[in-house]
Design a protein that fits this description.
Layout lengths: L3 E7 L8 E3 L1 E5 L3 E2 L12 H6 L9 E5 H9 L13 E4 L11 E4 L3 E8 L5 H5 L3 H4 L1 E3 L5 E3 L3 E7 L1 E4 L4 E4 L12
Parallel strand pairs: 5-6
Antiparallel strand pairs: 1-2, 1-6, 3-4, 3-12, 5-11, 7-8, 7-13, 8-11, 9-10
Length: 180
């Protein structure tokens, strides 16, 4: 199966979910045009409170549609944009990517993966028990965060549902993703 974008979403306000759109424009070094998290420096309110000058490593939030499938099987109704993601993909092992992987979305847009989304308690406001459903433990007991990955825009462009996703892994050692 080809790796594809299945949906795109954005919100100009700091609401939990984002509205699905026909297309979104990624702006180099900034994020999603018209999204509340657009900017060179951090825009997530809790992070701004700690240090408003830190770089925005969370310009674009991507979630794999397979997570929506898994959550549906567990009894949750979650669709594209509901968990605050900008881009929903299918056929991409987002959580298995190394730090620095490049995702080429459509014709020109490129997102560099910076790390994992660390889901917070707000997610239970969407659906009770959802936070526990997007967290797991591996064989060693370490926390596995399944709520998608974050990235920065390295090359701008319009991204739409149906666009292909091409992955470029960085050379050298595979650096596992950590929360950003």
């Amino acid at each position: 199966m080809a790796a594809v974008v299945t949906a795109v979403a954005r919100s100009g306000t700091h609401d939990f979910g984002k509205a699905v759109e026909p297309g979104i424009r990624l702006l180099t070094g900034l994020g999603v045009d018209g999204d509340a998290h657009l900017g060179v420096t951090v825009r997530h309110r809790s992070r701004v409170a700690r240090d408003p000058d830190q770089p925005n490593l969370r310009q674009v939030h991507l979630i794999h549609a397979e997570l929506h499938d898994e959550l549906a099987a567990a009894g949750f109704t979650v669709g594209p944009g509901d968990l605050g993601e900008n881009v929903t993909t299918r056929g991409v092992d987002l959580l298995g990517l190394p730090t620095g992987a490049l995702l080429r979305l459509g014709g020109t847009a490129v997102v560099e993966v910076t790390g994992l989304r660390n889901p917070c308690l707000q997610i239970d406001g969407f659906a009770r028990g959802l936070l526990a459903a997007v967290l797991d433990r591996d064989a060693d007991g370490a926390v596995v965060r399944k709520a998608g990955v974050m990235g920065v825009v390295r090359a701008g462009g319009v991204v739409r549902a149906g666009d292909l996703v091409r992955i470029e892994r960085p050379e050298g050692l595979h650096t596992p993703l950590r929360p950003v």
